[in-house]
Amino acid sequence: EWATNVLKPFPLPGHSPPLNEFIPPPECPVFEPSWEEFADPFAYINKIRPIAEKTGICKIRPPPEWQPPFACDVDRLKFTPRIQRLNELEAQTRVKLNFLDQIAKFWELQGCTLKIPHVERKILDLLNYISKLHLHKGGFDAVCRERRWTKISVKMGFAPGKAIGSHLRAHYERILFPYNLFQTGANLPVRHYIEQECFCIEICLRMSVTEVKKEPIEYKDPAVYEETVLNELNKPPTNKVDHYMCLVCGNGTAEDRLLLCDGCDDSYHIFCLIPPLHDVPKGDWRCPRCLAQECGKPPVAFGFEQASRSYTLQAFGDMADSFKSDYFNMPVHMVPTELVEKEFWRLVSTIEEDVTVEYGADIASKEFGSGFPVKNGHFEITPEDEHYLSSGWNLNNMPVLDGSVLTHITADICGMKLPWLYVGMCFSSFCWHIEDHWSYSINYLHWGEPKTWYGAPGYAAEHLESVMKKLAPELFESQPDLLHQLVTIMNPNTLMNNGIPVIFRTNQCAGEFVITFPRAYHSGFNQGFNFAEAVNFCTMDWMPIGRSCVDHYRELSRYCVFSHDEMVCNMACKAELIDVDLASVVQKEMTVMVQEEKKLRDKISKMGVLQSRQVDYEVLPDEERQCCKCRTTCYLSGITCVCSPGKMVCLHHPQDLCSCPHGNLTLHYKFTLDELYPMMAAVILRAESYKNWLSNVEDIVENKGNKKRGLHSLVEQAETKAFPQASLLDQLRKITSEADKVAVMAQQLLNGKRQTRYRSGGGKSQSQNELTVEELRSFVQQLDKLPCNIRQAPLLKDLLNRVDDFQQHSERLLSDESPSPLELQDLLDVSLGLDVELPQLPLLRERLEQARWLEAVQQASGRPETLCLDTMRRLIDQGVGLAPHSSVERAMARLQELLTVSEQWEERVLALIEARPYHSIETLDNALQEVGTIPAYLPNCLQLKDVVTKAKKWLHEAEALQLGGRIPVLDSLSELVLRAEGLPVWLEPLSRLEALVSDVQSWKESAAKTFLLKNSSFSLLEVLCPRCDVGSGHQKAKSKKVKEPAQISKKTSTKLDSVCDVERALSESKDSASAMTALAEVRQREMETLLALRASNESKLLSAESCSALSVCVCQKAPSGAMVQCELCREVFHSSCVTTAADLEYGQAWLCPLCQRSRKPPLDKVLPLLASLQRIRVRLPEGDALRFLIERTVQWQHRVQQACTDGVLEKVTDKVNTIVLWLVSGKDRTKTILLSQSCFPLSVEEMMVEGFLLQVTLPETEQLYRYLLYKLAPPPAHSTPSETSTEQDQHRKSSSDSEHSKKAKKSHKKKSKKSKERSEESKRASSPSHTSSDPAASDSEEDFSLCAAPWCREPEGDEVNWVQCDGSCNQWFHQVCVGLSAERAEIEDYICISCTQPDYDRD
Fold it and tell me: What pTM does this model have?
């Protein structure tokens, strides 16, 4: 419910303010502590207390950097605010409103609606009207008689001369006069007997009389009068028709003027009533008796209502900002605080405008979280803000700091020990009040608009209470503890005008603290939406105030938040731990408390209360140990009776418990008096210990008496017992510090630790102020004047004796021509313990430096192997800085001569080493002989010596390399040549060895050109050696599906598992025989592994029920389309995945890319390589491998010849085993014979396999393969072998006849590149259709075009079909090389494997 009236415009700036405008009180003090002062909250508050407590409130601005994060759980915070009607807050305005409510209720019960009159466009202040009227003696009659209505109008603020007085009189007669009669009881009816008819006539005539009405006579006791009249009215009427008779006149005439009460049904004539009514009321009417009952009910205590809805912080803020901006018709941040303040006091003082606001007050931080960060809270604090968790200004910490006596209260008191949260809006206010137990309070505004405060000092509290009771007595009559309810406010101007000494104000902005001092009344309001947090705290100066507050509460029968006696006893139980200043305060509190308790217990004992029982009050709830009379919380003692269970009284009110004999009462006590006295004694001891300490320190400071005392023990006592840091303690620390310095100096003089060692010769530093011997004697004499004993004093006399001994010894050494450095150093070391000025020290240091230098020169000369040029230069530089002396000069001359000779030889040797061309070893050896006589360490000469030694060793190894006609190994030869490059010496055999290495490299290049394919990934050694990786390329992807290859891979590996192992074995072999043995072992493994691989691949094809279940080829997919089989490993490949030679004739074997490892040159090209290597006479792994290859080839040729001679080939069976693959194409299944192989003896198979393995082209290999093929599968009778191969083995190559070539997508004609002999042989083996050639084709520019396929088979013939890749490379390929027919090339796009598989390497 918001403002019910239209918002009024405000006066513009510069206009004269209206009457009774609010005048702001003076500002309270504002403090801005430094960081040092801000570190201790209570120390700073105690510092400003003498100033701030005179104003009651003060404001503290923290340092600008102190900005704690807002840690409240905003999402969870939901509260129900209080409703505040502003004009009900102000005491005098509330009295006026209550008065208007009473009048309105009076007239409502009279059947009329009250309409407050307006005079001069202002609502008539009826209460002020009555007060002004009663100021004149005689009241209404006197005013009328003396015609003072004009004076009353002037006093009420109306202008004279406008006949306002007559209006006021008329309003008074109409509205207030009947109510005044009701209040005095003059309107209550008095019954008359109806014996004279003239009575009614007189009453009727009285209604028309215009004479002035008289005030009713006031009775001395209205209550008695009212009771008497009511008893008269309650008597049974004499008339039988009493319900229709007037209870005043007893007559039933004039029925149209007879009123019937709507409450009790009694009848009254309107002219019999006092005052009489002119007409019958239209509404419900109550008789005087019912009116007295209704209006005589006690008023309900005033308090704030709770709002009908709950708010979140966001919702409340939106509402608050909307209200303020609408009210002032401007943005909230532009409304001046002065304007809000004046409008607030105007609104609370008017009865014409009813503005309602809401205030979220007393929200428990324990439930929703404090605005300050707390440990183990939900708010995640950053590391740089962690110090706010323990800050004393964090309101969660302040009540429980060491300086706060609230720490001795065990309970968590919400609002006192636990902060409360306050969410305000514009005009929401907190009324005049003082804190519970008259404690301190501190309020921090986290954010939002300012909060305006008003405060009065504590000494003016009683005066303020009396003024408010005087100005609004009606409120305090119904609520004596009104100021404790926080529901009443009063204008500070009004209070100051009525004698309050002074009231102060301040505007608390965000980030500022406001502190209220004990018993300081304070109030205020919020300028707008803000969030504040407040808590109480109590320091030791509050203790006597707190006890006075408990006595005050006892008089008012007000509830105590905590027990003051309990807090004092808790502190007394920890007397040894509390502060000494607090102990002094607690001592006084304990004394007062114990004396009062003893007095009360004696009084109870004299009354006859004999029963007693010890009770632990701390475990009882507060409501069970409250005095039922004064509501004080009992702690030390209480009185109970069995007749009143659950009730208790304090010892001040034993007579108010019950009416039982005093012997039935029981005294409950916490401590006996015998227990209280030791507690008080402990507090006194704590306080008295400080006094004793103070006396001793004063004696020391004032230097009284001759008694020596322990200074450190006094300081330690002050620190351990937490004595206050007074100026006396500072003086004691200063005296103790001076005594410590004297003791330290004396100790340093004794042990020599005051100096640092002189870097070159020991002794004391020259930069320090040292004592002379005379000053040392004076220092010893001063030790006796200290107020404490210095244990080093007896030892200082011994120091003087040692100084004399030092002087005598130093004179003797300085007179010696060649003093020992050791003796000089020892004497200087002795001076380290003599903290006095010694004039002999400079001379001793000079002689020590000279002696040490001569000793260093002598030692360096005695060790020539370490005497380098830098050492000689350093010694010469050091000698230059020494004081002149004959021995030093002689040593310098010898050292300079040696340095000159050494430098000359160093330069000469360096020139010999860097000379080009190199010198012979003889020249260098002669120079080395001359250098050996110099007694010094010369790096270049040593380098020359190392070079000569290495050169001699190299020559010896070069001669031994070919000693006895041995063939050197290439590695040894290369290593020897490499070593020679780092020797700056001319070596005669080097050129010959370099030529050998060059010849070997040339041989290796020639062998690589002979054997290696173009872009081959194999090295020369891999090609020449037997294969070590048989099956690795085929079986890696098949090991999980094929059983036999998996078993092969699990075969135990030998030491020659890779080419690297073979190369290392050949290099480490002693001779060619051992190398051949190693290669024979590799060859045996190669044969076994390859035969197993062949068997595995063939069994895989035989055992497969369906082609779709197989994984073949390099792509590991099922067989499809044209397939080709390797004759060596027996693996099946797609024609599109591998290279198939288009011109491969029937009877020629096809090998897969993994088995075709080299060019396989003819044997006649290989033998010259071996012969040239033998001429070079250098062993290398490739040469041993080539030799083994040739021997293996010759042996294989012999085996083939032997097999022909023995007739082994004739025994081969004619039975052919065919392997059938099912190729699925759509829904049709067709059989295709993919390959065929005869079953022949194992020896023949091994012989054929080894022939394929040889990296040499032999006619026996082709003849053996053709013989076996023709014998097992002879070609057709009417076709050449080439045609038969084309017809039966479609997997080997695609048909490329002239008809298809015409339809090809892209085709080229290529001239044959083979020799004449090859052409003739091709003509004999080819069909007649391919014998013709095109002369134009031979002259084409594209005759020598190259196929981009790495496995190009170089097809020959009259027409060669080509296809271009439709991918990204656009390269040309032979159709036969990529397994593509002419029909497919015409219909389909072709994309090469390089474009379809980017990771594929053509090499």
Answer: 0.49
Torsions phi, psi of 1340, nearest 5?
-65, 155
Q: How far apart are the C-alpha atoms of 390 and 388, rounded to whole Å?
A: 5
Q: How many CA atoms lie within 13 A of 1143 on its CB side?
A: 22
Q: Are strands 665-669 and 1123-1125 parallel, antiparallel or unpaired?
A: unpaired
Q: Give the DSSP letter string of 584-635.
A: HHHHHHHHHHHHHHHHHHHHHHHHT--EEEE--GGGS-GGGGB-TTT-PBPS
Predicted confidence (pLDDT) at residue 232 exceeds the cutoff of 80: no
| Residue 1218: strand, helix, or coil | strand
Beta strands at 451-455 and 522-526: parallel, antiparallel or unpaired: antiparallel
Instruction: Look at residue 875 in the predicted model and tell me its pLDDT.
Output: 86
pLDDT digits (tens, 9 = 90+) for 18-49: 556 889 999 999 999 999 999 999 999 999 99
Query: Sign of dihedral through CA atoms 712, 714, 720, 723?
Result: negative
Q: How far apart are CA 447 and CA 582, in angstroms?
A: 36
Phi, psi at residue 365, to the nearest 5°?
A: -70, -20
Neighbours of 35 (CB within 10 A): 10
1159 and 1127 Cβ atoms separated by less than 8 Å: no
Model confidence at 905, in pLDDT bands (50, 70, 90)? confident
Q: Are 902 and 932 in contact (CB under 8 A)?
A: no
DSSP 1119-1143: --SSEEE-TTT--EEETTTS---TT
The residue to which tokens 């002259």 are assigned: 1339
Average pLDDT over residues 709-733: 69
Packing angle, helices 841-861 and 821-832, rounded to 10? 140
The Cα 1004–Cα 273 span in angstroms is 149
DSSP state of 356: E
Q: Is the dihedral of CA 1131, 1137, 1138, 1139 positive or negative?
A: positive
What's the rounded Cα separation, in Å, for the pair 1021 and 257? 146
Cα distances (Å, whole numbers) of residue 380 to 55, 301, 453:
40, 45, 33
Structure tokens at 1364: 């271009």
What does the pLDDT read at residue 139? 63
SS3 130: helix
What Rg, from alpha-carbon coordinates, does the chain have?
63
Q: Which helix (H) or strand (E) holds 392?
A: none
pLDDT value of residue 1236: 40
Query: Helix, strand, or coil here: 1271?
Result: helix
Distance CA 1239, CA 1219 (A): 13
Region 403-408 average pLDDT: 85
Split at pLDDT 50, 70, 90, the class of 1231 is very low
Q: How many CB atoms lie within 10 A of CB 147?
A: 10
pLDDT of residue 317: 95
CA distances from 609 to 596, 613, 629 (A): 18, 12, 19
Q: Are 123 and 352 in contact (CB under 8 A)?
A: yes
Pairwise CA distance, residues 1241 & 880, whole Å? 102
> Using the 8-state DSSP alphabet, how is residue 1332 labeled?
-
Give the separation between CA 939 and CA 1129, rounded to whole angstroms.
66
CB-CB contact of 1287 with 1279 (8 Å):
yes
Cβ-contact 600, 623 below 8 angstroms: no
Neighbour tally for 276: CB within 10 Å:
14
C-alpha 1286/C-alpha 1296 separation (Å) is 10
Q: How far apart are CA 579 and CA 351, in angstroms?
A: 55
Give the length of the chain: 1403
> Pairing between strand 30-31 and 57-60?
parallel
Cα 821 to Cα 1193: distance, rounded to the nearest angstrom: 89
Q: What tens digit of pLDDT does each residue of 821-874 get?
A: 888 888 888 888 777 888 888 888 888 888 888 888 888 888 888 888 888 888
pLDDT at residue 1400, rounded to an integer: 42
User: What distance in Å separates the CA atoms of residue 769 and residue 277, rounded to the nearest whole number?
Assistant: 116
